[in-house]
Write the structure tokens for this entry.
Amino acid sequence: MSDMRVMTEKKKKKPMTDKEYVEQEGMHCPFCGSNRVEGTGCINADGAGALGPVTCADCEKSWYDCYDLTGYIDRDTGYVEGNT
Ligand SMILES: [Zn+2]
């Protein structure tokens, strides 16, 4: 059966859930747990989201940090919130 391979790939889980990754503030490799992770390029913003390339110096895996647009900051005043 040719779709056996697809079936097993579908069952693959992420090594760490997004929630766990966020709880560790993206400071640990989701594949091996190392904290020797580093950003390897510019964050690509696209609409309300952005992707930042990251690699692990220990297991040499690479992935993207995912960012959501959460607001804006006035560069002149540094104010984060408008209505106070
Ligand atoms: Zn790693």
Notes: Residues 4-11 form the longest helix (8 residues). The CA atoms of residues 19 and 29 lie 14 Å apart. DSSP finds two helices and four strands in the chain. Residues 4-68 form one domain.
